[in-house]
Write a structure and sequence with these properties.
By secondary structure, this protein is mainly α. The protein is built from 19 helices and 4 strands. It is globular.
Length: about 425
């Protein structure tokens, strides 16, 4: 912890500027026991310094800024602190207390900053267009049946790119497009069972996803919790991909396609698939410690634990693991056994704190979702955040074009 004088010196600013940073939410201050002075976490101060240096173009900072470094864009969508994400100031699980569909309410708040109970219903020519896109989805699924839940999402986005509306009109039209797209993405897993059952639109995305995965009424609360805690997480890799695409003027579907392609990587959304493989390898509680210790002996990692932004533990994973339906589920018992085994072998520290990926897999097992569903639910949830970031990026009217710090051989001759 740093004093105000130390923090100001490190940042190269006057104390008054330091207090302004606090009032603008750029820096957090904490009371110092027994005094009236404030203290500042060194990590927070260094992060703010990196941000300022990156804006001034300092090469050493620029070389590492995109690796969990300084923010590259300003955003009013999601705050991340020790308590997890907050969507425009609201805690994710606060949407469970509403009277309507929780995921619809979350999406409306993220994208537009307004309270809604359900997604809008398409009408007139727009209804016909949405129905036409749904027919395209069904034809694509019949011609090339998707084999995974994530592939179903990609197929829906492909149909939107092929037959969906092009260009950007106004905010109201874009919101209706976003709502229809989100509803169809939630219905996407239906394509695994029957393409003919795919619906053109829905006003209740949580219920549509529950129907697509055949989740019973008791499991809908778990599914809603999964969607809410994963809806957005600031400027992660997939969100950055969506914003880069949106900055070029691309459509909503094209921007989300970039994000889904990014989320499919095993170091991002598909981390859930790696956790599922670990759980399947263990099979049951009795083998959990054997499997974890075997991975350590072979120099392999134990996926699904720790997060650079949450050294004290990922609040999203904790919320899912503490859900009564998940905590008391026999189907998720092996997940908890793996958590216990890893902690017993490596101690209770930042490396053994379960991430959201562990929580998503445990929740998926608890409500009987098929293999690959945890990654798909992660991507579906994140669609709400991606749409919000696309809208915000468009409003800035700036092209996202980072510069490279060249490290290759010198030029051999001038360009003539």
């Amino acid at each position: 912890m740093l004093t105000a004088k130390q923090a100001a010196a490190l940042l190269g600013v006057q104390p008054q500027t330091l207090y302004a940073y606090v009032s603008r939410g750029l820096l957090r201050s904490r009371a110092s026991p027994g005094t009236r002075q404030k203290r500042y976490a060194r990590a927070d101060v260094l992060r703010l310094k990196d941000r300022a240096d990156a804006r001034r173009g300092h090469a050493p900072v620029a070389s590492s800024a995109l690796h969990w470094g300084a923010p590259v864009v300003e955003s009013a969508i999601t705050l991340i602190d020790d308590d997890g994400p907050a969507y425009r100031g609201r805690a994710p699980l606060s949407f469970l207390r509403g009277v309507g569909d929780p995921f619809a309410a979350c999406a409306g708040w993220l994208v537009r900053g307004v309270d809604i109970d359900a997604l809008p219903t398409p009408t007139g020519p727009w209804l016909l267009e949405v129905q036409g896109i749904a027919r395209c989805v069904r034809r694509l699924a019949q011609a090339a049946p998707p084999t995974t839940p994530l592939a179903c999402i990609d197929l829906v986005l492909t149909a939107w790119r092929l037959q969906g509306p092009a260009g950007v009109v106004d905010d109201e039209h874009e919101w209706h497009k976003a709502a229809a797209l989100l509803g169809q993405v939630c219905a996407a897993p239906t394509l695994l069972r029957s393409p003919d059952a795919f619906t053109a639109f829905t006003t209740t995305p949580t219920r549509a996803l529950a129907t697509a995965f055949d989740v019973d009424d008791d499991g809908i609360d778990v599914l809603a919790t999964m969607l809410l805690v994963a809806a957005d997480h600031e400027l992660n890799a997939s969100t950055f991909a969506a914003r880069v695409t949106a900055a070029t003027g691309a459509t909503l579907a094209s921007s989300l396609s970039s994000a889904v392609s990014t989320v499919s990587g095993p170091r991002h959304g598909a981390m859930c698939d790696r956790v599922e493989a670990l759980v399947d390898e263990a099979g049951h509680r009795a083998r959990a410690r054997v499997v974890v210790s075997g991975r350590l002996a072979r120099g392999e990692g134990v996926p699904g634990f720790s997060h650079p932004l949450y050294p004290r533990g990922d609040p999203r994973g904790r919320a899912l693991l503490q859900h009564p339906r998940v905590k008391g589920s026999a189907d998720a018992d092996v997940v908890f056994a793996i958590i216990e085994a890893w902690r017993a072998l490596a101690g209770d520290n930042a490396l053994t704190k379960p991430s959201v990926d562990i929580g998503l897999v445990a929740a998926a097992r608890a409500i009987g979702l098929p293999a690959g569903a945890a990654t798909a639910v992660f991507a579906i949830a994140r669609c709400a955040g991606w749409l919000a970031h696309v809208v915000e990026q468009r409003a800035s009217a700036e092209l996202l074009r980072p510069r490279a710090w060249y490290t290759g051989p010198p030029r051999d001759e001038p360009l003539r």
